[in-house]
Amino acid sequence: MTETAASVYVNEFEGHLVGSVQVELTESVLANFREHLLEAVQRTRPRGIIIDVSAVPFMDVQEFTQLRRVLNMAALMGGRPILVGLQPGIVAALVEMDADVEGLETAIGVEQAVRRLRDSTPDNEQKEFAPEFDVAEEADTIAGPDDAGSPQQVDEPEGQKSV
Amino acid sequence: MAVAIMRARQQCQEAGFDVSTSCRVATAVSELARNIVKYAGQGEIILLRVSAPRGAGIEIRAQDQGPGITDIEKAMEDRYSTGRTLGLGLPGVRRLMDDFDIKTEPGAGTRVTIRKWL
What is the ipTM, given to two decimal places? Predict the structure, then answer.
């Protein structure tokens, strides 16, 4: 986890980036967020870029527009940005103010965004992120530390098939 | 400007508006404040608790001694009707509030008064 500033975080999760802003989007917060997010996109090559703003108490049209620019930048780098968690009051005001929301992918929450990204990922691409926790643990205990790097070689014991 | 927006939200919540309505009022205040900064350079925003026979509410006056708006009718036109706006956000501000009044004179400044009732 990278803490970029007070209440701005960029985390990696299942091959995606989850950026979380928990304060109002002042110019310095936005600049900081942009810098760290784009750096993380380049470094981790995520499939999805989930931007969680559920803890942002207020966002005016200009701040929203600036945030969109950051999302556009991330998209230009090849990621798929999804904006998550806009609060009802903010949404109502943005639409009344005629803010440009065209072409913006959104989700109700981080879980929904992750599920959508998972559903839209081809199976062969999904595999490298697929191992569930219990499988990985099995691999470790059975194969020992030497073979831990190649879990696909490990057969699961009968009767313990993980879902 | 940030202070005006924060105060507007605080005042709204103290006056008894829900979070969502407070957010809408704050958005309107923010738009007016940004217009002042952008076109007039400076001005003032006054927040008032008001009461009338119909009940209590909040009033915001945004005023400046800037260049004023030459074509106020155009400034109030909606994108839906004309396909473009002057970009002042005034139709949106009017939609977000219950009352909207604007007085402007080229060269003398602009005063926008908006109200939201509980």
Answer: 0.85
